[in-house]
Design brief:
mainly alpha, three-stranded antiparallel sheet, two-stranded parallel sheet, 8 helices, elongated
Length: 263
Amino acid sequence: MTTIGVVLAAIGALGVGALLLFFSRVTTIESWQTDVVVPGGFFGLSPSEIEAAVLLIALPGGLFLLALCFIGTGRVMRGAVGVRDTTGSASGSVVSYNTVMEPRLHLLWLGVALAFWILLILVPAVSALLGGWPITVDDMPQGYVWALLGLYGGLAAAIAGVLLTSFLKKRRYAAMHATEDERLLQPPSGFWRWMTFRWRFDLWLAAAGGALAGLSAVILPFGEVTTFVALLAGGILLLALGVWCAAQYWRAGVPLGFAESYA
């Protein structure tokens, strides 16, 4: 199942590239004329036709969602999965255990996410500031180019935030375990178990922070310095909060590799 998810993710990434090429090469025309020459474009479309094509922007996102389902399910199925009876909200009814990803592999995936952010956000922003693509695209399709870049570049930045925070979370807990830190013997905290283990809200905060900080660069070509600073500062604040919460994982009283949910 994991392989299927990786293939779907690769197809989604190719779809983003194909859509960027498509909208970058569209030339907006009101109507066809026999002597019309479409400068530098593969397609000459009317505004209504371009609006209809905008629905294609969501297709890679659907593929990425399916990929996540397959990869996540495949990952869980590789480990030990069990069901237990519970009362109240003290613990989940479905539990699983998986081996912890090696640090090098974890950092490799972080590098992949950062590479996609650079390609989809940083490179176009710098290019636009220098007067190049995507500023050179016609006004109407240019908006869809920026929408694609922001949507999937922001997603890459959010994933990078999660991967960075998750890496620091694991390193912090592993270091405490290696040194036999006495704090690990303290009674677990129900709040931190709920926060950092069951629902992983520390990683959700990191995702929101990564997305905001990553998207801030898109604002620069439009001269919105105040908005840029606000997005960047807000993103860094949320990311820092997520990292701080992740560092409290030891309070949950659960070893790395475990997970639980309700079904």
